[in-house]
């Protein structure tokens, strides 16, 4: 079911030179910190500590993964986070069904989510490369009883290779529409922020969306929310998940880490992140968003929740809107603390 006419473009996704790829690979696109360490005095300033305290209070004991964002402003001496390469080397977890119409097919590093509709499947993100698209996404869907041939749309949450890298395989095999924000299509075509030798090449421009767009396939509608910062064209998604006779509102956050600390536009981006989390928090409260998921397991712990779901009991993905608001508050307060450090 074709709902968009792909816009024409003079741009093409060209290969990046090995030298530039090596430079871009010095930082992880989605979770490593590429920022200058703050001075101890600045990290202990009253304003920074006020925001960190607010973030810690909002995080409680159940959202500590998001509180890790505080390490930019107030780093713990000697603490080293698990690298993307370490996470990618871990055994691939089994795919799983989070809700009747929402499935996880990813690894411990990066996630892909499949939404089933009455007219095919919407895939959110495509992991790092063709190999993962084939052996994790494609194979995982088949293991869950889903037919990858039914993929009609792939939504790329932002223009980093760990989210678009497997698009090439999916496009060749199943020819879905590829959706990304207008801003990040341009970034992918003209000036990649990050790159790695094991990432696939950026896709060619297809469907471009902006804030407020609604993507529809069959009986399913996905609201697009522009949440800039991680990239300036990062999109987060709102849709309904079904469980038996119940419906739960879901927000999938499109880009979490503050991995732009050495960029000249870092203050513009952290301000955009702050504004975006504040707006999303209002939307989450108004729409009763009970499910808050990510495109990285290190934040939403989807793998662990699927394991718990398999043991019976309440669905651990259903957090309640108050918890969704708290998660966005943690992110917002950590961003405000980071802004103080970066402004000094």
UniProtKB/TrEMBL annotation:
Molecular function, one GO term: metal ion binding
Any Pfam family hit: Lactamase_B
Residues of the Metallo-beta-lactamase domain: 109-296
Superkingdom of the organism of origin: Bacteria
Cited CDD domains: metallo-hydrolase-like_MBL-fold (cd16280)
Keywords: Hydrolase, Metal-binding, Zinc
Cofactor(s), names only, from the UniProt record: Zn(2+)
Protein name, UniProt field: MBL fold metallo-hydrolase
Organism for this UniProt entry: Phreatobacter aquaticus
